[in-house]
Amino acid sequence: MTTNSLKSPIDNIKGVGPKVKEQLENLGIKYVEDALFMLPRNYENRTKLTSIRDILPGQAYQVEGEIVESKVYYPGRRSFYAKITDGTGYLQIRLFFFSQAQAKSFEKGMSVRIYGVIRNSGNKLEVIHPSYKIFNSKFSPPLDDTLTPIYSLGSNKITQYRLRTVISNCLKQINESNLEEEEIDNIFLKKEISDLNIKDALKIIHNPSIEDDILKIKNFEHPAQKRLIIEELVTNLIGVKISTDKIDRMTAPLVKSEEKTLKGFYKKLPFSLTNAQQRVINEIQKDIMNAKPMRRLVQGDVGSGKTVVAAGAMLTCAKNNLQSVLLCPTEVLAEQHFKNFSNWFEDEKISVELLTGKTKKKEWELIDKKLKSGEIKILIGTHAVFQERVKMNNLSLIVVDEQQRFGVKQRYEMLQKTNDNLLPHQLFMTATPIPRTLAMTIFADLSVSKIDEMPPGRNPVITSVMSNDKRDNLIERLEVICKDGNQAFWLCTMIEESESLDVQAAESAKEWIEKKSKNLNIGLVHSKLNKLEKDLAIEDFRKGKTNVLVCTTVIEVGMDVPNASLMIIENAERLGLSQLHQLRGRVGRGPDMNAHCVLLYQGSLGDIAEARMSAMKKTNDGFEISEIDMKLRGSGEILGTKQSGGMELRIADLIRDAHYLEEAQELANIISNYPKEMNILMNRWIGHKQNLIAAQ
Ligand code: ADP
Ligand code: MG
Questions:
Q1: Atom of ligand 1 at shortest distance to CA of 277?
Q2: Atom 24 (ligand 1): residue with closest C-alpha?
Q3: Domain boundaries, position 288
């Protein structure tokens, strides 16, 4: 084996053909080393069975039992129900999406082994959509002898099983290969961070055996995890330093004040700016007139009016004959901004264009030409598209809306898009406040503006919590609201992490409402619709042609329909607090409106979910919400795949691991004196594509 076997292409590994190779590449895995550093975000413990008697509701377990009952039934929607027993108690299994064959396979007398979060439903134990295996009780399948790592797959097609196999094949090469880490291992050892070298740490992390401290591993407190978490933090801190130094040496395009136009624009709006908006606008104006590239974060709760603040800056640039872009996390949001901006700037004859993944090739070519010639002054698009293919003539300002992507990777991407020594100004807008520890370390180079005031006449959204069994009551409420000329969102969220289940949930919710009420016009948006269908559904809702919009979280951020006064969220117990707050922020945007939010839950609420629901009932203040969120997260709860804090990290979690930041900073200062090691780390954690030397 050569010393560089870890740098060999991933398709050298057994089991990686062209299809899997492509799937792996979509996950950012090109080389063996990339696969090794794709780290689990969670673990499942399938090494043992738990007796039903010993279950504490709200946690995940593996349970095995005999099927004593099974049926398809219709409590409003088609459902599957089975009851199993292991002799110590009973557990019910429920599926909402299933095939006939699946239902049939739960044959009485057969045994089933399930893994999933078990909750209380009434006084019964219940698991919804568990993973399961059915077998004849005489042939019980063997138990795992290692913890099962769970990787973040996003919406990629590859399965956990396949990725696990690939990674374990990669691990086989690790002993014979040189990870070029000795010096780094030494530094970690000397600083008493961890006496595990990187190879051993990786082996444990991907493949923890039952002899390892399982509790520590599940809480990300095992020395092997600490070794890697700190290494990742160190690398990011070094990255921040390098990019900050570089940015400090660059200049931004020259922007001159366009006060008259700016005032005129704000005067034309149907409302007057809040003092907070005005203050932040002034701060930004000052920044963009400076030769030093701006890096400013605007923090403002949902509905505080961040869009018009950004629009003013973009208008100023356009009037200077310079280009700017507004980047959005979703297409829906990009389209909404595009409509607003086009209206606002029509009189000014400023050319505004929209670019998303759905833009046709011909159209895109035309836009591309006009971007290069400088004709288009304002481009609105999704982050993904911009990153991949946009080249502009004289880009002076980049606004990033509602996506907290201002990590190190993004800084490098930005630096790569620049030629000469010109760097565009950057403005980030977010509803989530950044914790202090992060503001002082990873985001130390961001200036922060706060819109700490809501537009007048905004009433708080009244929030209630309701068991899903009572959802029939909502029909009347929907009808009343719509009779009054208002509108409602009905939001379906994931049962397990699957986009297609999400879509099915939305479709069946729509059918259910239609069956229950003849008086409502119901629209539907989800990710599987094509652009035209999606556009039409959203347009109809905006115009009030439909009363209720059944949707998936595609509408999560930014969507602004002032007439909407009711938000119903299904499976709310599965969502994080800040997401719930974002979603609730979609209603009650009109003046003096009485808006409501109903959080529906399945089964019974666990402690943490209960705490989240009460926080939602208690307050509409995003800052308070995020403080509570932090406390709840601090208690060890892992909230799905979403990382907060604006970084896409592989193992570190900036909130969970905030207490390591000081140590990491110290190490970063040391390693900054070792150029070779620094590069190994940067390439490993931030990416091969980044050409980091060039950025230095
Ligand atoms: P967010 O900060 O969540 O992005 P938006 O920019 O979408 O908020 O603004 C929410 C709504 O409030 C929009 O309909 C916008 O037109 C309106 N709005 C913004 N500023 C004001 C204001 N000063 N007074 C009244 N309405 C405002
Ligand atoms: Mg917004």
A1: 23
A2: 455
A3: 220-457+659-696
